[in-house]
Amino acid sequence: MSLTEDRTIACPSCGAASTTRVHKAVDVTVTPELEAMLLDGRIFLFTCPSCGHRARIVEPELLYRSRELLVQLDALGTFDAAAASSALGSSLPKTVRVVRDGNALVEKVKIAEAGLDDRVVEAMKVLAKASMPDGDGKRLLFEAAEGEGDAARVRFTLLAPDGKAAGVGLARAAYDRLAAELAASGRLVDPGPWVVVDEAFARALLAL
Length: 208
Ligand SMILES: [Zn+2]
Known about the structure:
Blueprint: E1 3-10, E2 17-27, H1 34-39, E3 45-47, E4 54-56, E5 63-65, E6 69-73, H2 81-88, E7 95-99, H3 102-113, H4 118-130, E8 139-146, E9 153-159, E10 165-171, H5 172-184, H6 199-205
Parallel strand pairs: 2-5, 6-7
Antiparallel strand pairs: 1-2, 3-4, 5-6, 8-9, 9-10
Helix pairs in contact: 4-5, 4-6
The site of zinc ion has 8 residues, from loops.
């Protein structure tokens, strides 16, 4: 079930208080129109009615749900997996993840839409960053899988610590090879629900 809440927010620019609708849960099995709003960031956009200032507001415990995927944002580190499991019971979809910020939530949705495995994508990001100058301080966010055959690419946004963003395209063949290697190694097991599949997870997966 999708869930919204009207909330009074003080504009970060002019200070004027206004009431805005905040999405607490996005269930695209019942409200599919929210999917596009989530992917292009409109769902996080606050526009001040007094001064027109725009700000990004991310509900710290936003929940996303589709038929295949459930992503729980836990920005405050207060999420209770046991309570969530008992509340949702056996109705959990195949993939259930916890993420730490809004970018990671949107990224999980994009990875699932592309039909890719987020564990392999995270491993691919670790390897790609290791080959970049100053890769450690940067962040790769999956955008899309594009193209066919030899031209097939996995496209990312590269975020630098200063906030600068650039596009990065990696060969789809590298993803496929990594997926095959990880599967052959026997390490690509289902981690179970409510796992954070991030860089630390991928480092363990790659035995780094
Ligand atoms: Zn304002």
